[in-house]
Design a protein that fits this description.
With about 700 residues, the protein is an alpha+beta fold. It has 19 helices and 23 strands. A 6-stranded antiparallel β-barrel has the order 1-2-3-6-5-4. A 6-stranded antiparallel β-barrel has the order 7-8-9-12-11-10. A 5-stranded mixed sheet has the order 15-14-13-16-17. The longest helix is centred in the middle third of the chain and has 18 residues.
């Protein structure tokens, strides 16, 4: 397991090894029976260990999760050094091999692996998992981490073992034999780490009944997860790609993220002197894998093998299990090209991945191809030689000349037009208006109305001086009645919430009208409108250099023009408060007005009060002429990685075709969060500002029909 070490480089300092151990232990979790409640510190509910392999995914042993009851477990993890433990429910998403119908207890055959999907999004550290099979070397030392009962208490521990050979052959039941240390009960499912390359290579499976050591399973056995019967239409249709693409994007984004002083896995690998495949530095490898993970996966294993064979010819040594994703192909490239001058093969591989057949495309696929090309171009500068660089440039030019994957522009526009015409048909909507009392900012007057397709607004109920915290309970009955009047089978009515700008962050979509009811935003589209647009403070009053405000009529025309454009021609997201994980001020209203009409502003860090007040940011967006904006409510985790939010928000806005589909798409995301679908976890706390200038809010003097 030491062949990834740079020739002649030291094996890493003691500080590097301590940092590696800290990273491993931060990602290690313990697994308890579901419904353990306050008994999480009791050894009686403890099942075994595991580790975070990707955001909201835990890898462990099948026998660990199947020693409990049902299909749920409780995952206990640490939010960070010194922050104590937290618990979250997890669902056993898949086990290898599948033993449906067999007794839960007893010896589980190899590979004895399980993936646990968390039921809700949480912030946590992830381990770095090798992209190539765990090779066998005599007397190689590995690290391990896990939990066990020590002195009657649950304690996290780590140690070292030596690789003593393999058990089994070239098949799915192959295991790595370990010796040199006593593996205590409970560590099964924990990570096994190569301390030279600084990456997880296996999962602890068993310990010997007598003596030292036990066995572990190589993480490459996850490649044997079942392939979907039908060609996937999205990344999350194949759990293997969903997990490892999320893994590689997480580590790429963590490397970019400046909000923490803690070392990343690539930092530590660099300190250890690791050299992935002898061609790339750890940082380069992390960036390459992250960019490959932005692409759709290979069309099939056969297609990936064909790509490798075209590059390697007779040198091709296909590992077992066969590579399945872009990261696996890169690992196979390492194994097949032992010579030091392998950089040209890595770059050629990236170029082939860029133009490979796609099982599907996303709105961000073309941007992902361009980002990968930029990485190739930068790495190639001054390395393989001018003739090679010219060839790469010619390949990219030819790539640009190819027709884009998927339907033609005309076909796509026709499909979007059909969807827009269906969505745009006038419908009823429920309107909730909140008026904040200037002398009692903690209380609101409220009005519940029904908006008719004709534009008429019918008032149903009113209330006065209601404390903010009591609004969900007080409004449960009037809103439920309004929904009952408007809902159609399979088509819940939209809820428009008109809020003063100081309350635009109010999480009405998260309100529940009963302990067992879904949040409002998971039941129906919920959008936010600005109730005091005409009384907003001028931008110059909220921040310096905010720009001269437009006259009211010009601002209205600007907003109407933008609204028409993004509904007729589609939209593009623009994150305006975050750059590569670094909080930046929202541009002045004058600068926002200069963005293209297709722009939908996106706030990544709404609620991060360490910086500019949120109302200032929103006032600038409103004064910039925008009727549509997207944000997520910041959960206070200063070290949270936000690259996935940027990427997915951009795909959602671009993929909508027209902005009129955004309320339904955001509703679907919230419903997915409620159902525990990991592909939607990026949208936790999402809010949609959707303020139609063609449907002005009722104001003083507006005629309302009697209830």
């Amino acid at each position: 397991m030491t062949d990834g070490h740079a020739p002649g480089a030291p094996g890493g300092s003691g500080n590097a090894h301590r940092a590696l151990r800290d990273l491993v232990m931060a990602a290690t979790v313990r697994i308890h029976r579901a419904g353990s409640g306050y008994a999480l510190d009791e050894p009686g509910t403890f099942l075994g260990s595991g580790f975070f392999i990707a955001p909201n995914w835990v890898l462990t042993c099948a026998h660990v999760v199947r020693s409990g009851e049902g299909n749920e477990v409780t995952v206990v993890y640490e939010r960070g050094p010194g922050r104590g433990t937290s618990a979250v429910t997890g669902e056993v998403a898949t086990v290898l091999p599948d033993r449906a119908g067999l007794p839960a207890r007893g010896t589980w055959p190899s590979p004895d692996l399980a993936l646990v999907r968390l039921s809700e999004p949480v912030d946590h550290d992830c381990a770095y998992v090798t992209e190539r099979p765990a090779a066998y070397y005599e007397e190689a030392v590995v690290l391990y981490s896990g939990w066990s009962v020590v002195g009657g208490e649950l304690r996290r521990l780590s140690g070292t073992c030596t690789v003593q050979g393999t058990l089994g052959g070239w098949s799915d039941d192959e295991q790595i034999r370990l010796g040199g240390d006593v593996l205590p009960p409970g560590v099964s499912g924990g990570p096994v780490v190569d301390p030279v390359r600084g990456e997880v290579v296996g999962v602890l499976k068993s310990r010997t009944d007598r003596g030292l050591g036990g066995t572990c399973t190589g993480v490459e056995q996850l490649r044997s997860l079942p392939v979907p019967a039908e060609e996937p239409a999205a990344e999350h249709d194949d759990p293997y790609h969903a997990v490892f693409h999320a893994h590689d994007r997480y580590h790429r984004d963590r490397q970019r993220h400046p909000d923490t002083d803690r070392s990343t896995w690539a930092d530590v690998q660099n300190q250890l002197g690791a050299r992935p495949g002898r061609a790339l530095s750890p940082e380069e490898r992390t960036q390459l894998l992250g960019r490959l993970a932005d692409l759709p996966p290979p069309a099939s294993t056969r297609a990936l093998l064909g790509l490798l064979e075209s590059l390697l010819g007779d040198q091709a040594a296909i590992p077992h299990p066969a590579p399945r994703g872009w990261r696996d192909g890169l690992g196979a490239l390492y194994e097949s090209s032992r010579q030091d001058a392998a950089l040209d093969l890595v770059l050629d591989y990236a170029m082939r991945a860029m133009s490979a057949e796609r099982p599907f495309v996303t709105p961000g696929t073309r941007a992902a191809e361009r980002a990968l090309w930029e990485w190739v171009r930068q790495i190639a500068e001054g390395r393989p030689g001018p003739a090679y660089r010219r060839r790469l440039g010619q390949q990219w030019i030819e790539r640009l000349q190819l027709a884009p994957h998927g339907p033609s522009a005309a076909e796509a526009e026709a499909a979007h037009a059909t969807a827009r015409s269906a969505d745009r048909a006038p419908r009823l909507f429920v309107l909730l208006e909140l008026e904040q009392l200037g002398w009692e900012p903690g209380r609101c007057d409220w009005h519940v109305s029904v908006g008719r397709p004709t534009g008429e607004v019918v008032r149903l109920r009113d209330g006065e001086r209601t404390p903010l915290e009591e609004l969900p309970a007080v409004l449960a009955a009037p809103l439920t009645e309004a929904f009952r009047q408007c809902d159609e089978p399979g088509r819940p009515v939209d809820l428009q919430v008109a809020l003063p700008h100081l309350l635009l962050g109010l999480d009405v979509d998260a309100w529940r009208f009963g302990p067992d009811e879904a949040p409002l935003g998971a039941q129906r589209p919920v959008v936010v409108r600005c109730a005091d647009r005409e009384q907003l403070p001028e931008p110059a009053d909220t921040a310096a250099h905010a720009g001269k405000p437009l006259p009211a009529d010009e601002e209205r025309h600007e907003r109407e023009d933008r609204w028409r454009w993004i509904h007729a021609h589609g939209a593009q997201a623009e994150v305006v408060d975050c750059e590569d994980g670094l909080r930046v001020p929202v541009p002045a209203a004058e600068s926002l007005r200069g963005l293209p009409h297709k722009t939908v502003p996106v706030l990544c860090r709404y609620g991060d009060h360490r910086f500019e007040d949120d109302p200032v940011a929103l006032v600038r967006i409103v004064h910039g002429g925008y009727g549509v904006a997207l944000w997520r409510r910041w959960r206070g985790q200063s070290e949270a990685v936000c690259g996935e939010f940027h990427r997915r928000a951009g795909d959602t806005v671009a993929g909508a075709g027209g902005a009129d589909r955004l309320p339904a798409l955001v509703h679907a995301l919230r419903a997915g969060l409620r159902e525990g679908r990991p592909e939607t976890y990026w949208a936790h706390g999402i809010a949609l500002f959707y303020d139609d200038p063609g449907r002005p809010l009722p104001g003083t003097g507006d005629l309302l029909e009697a209830p």
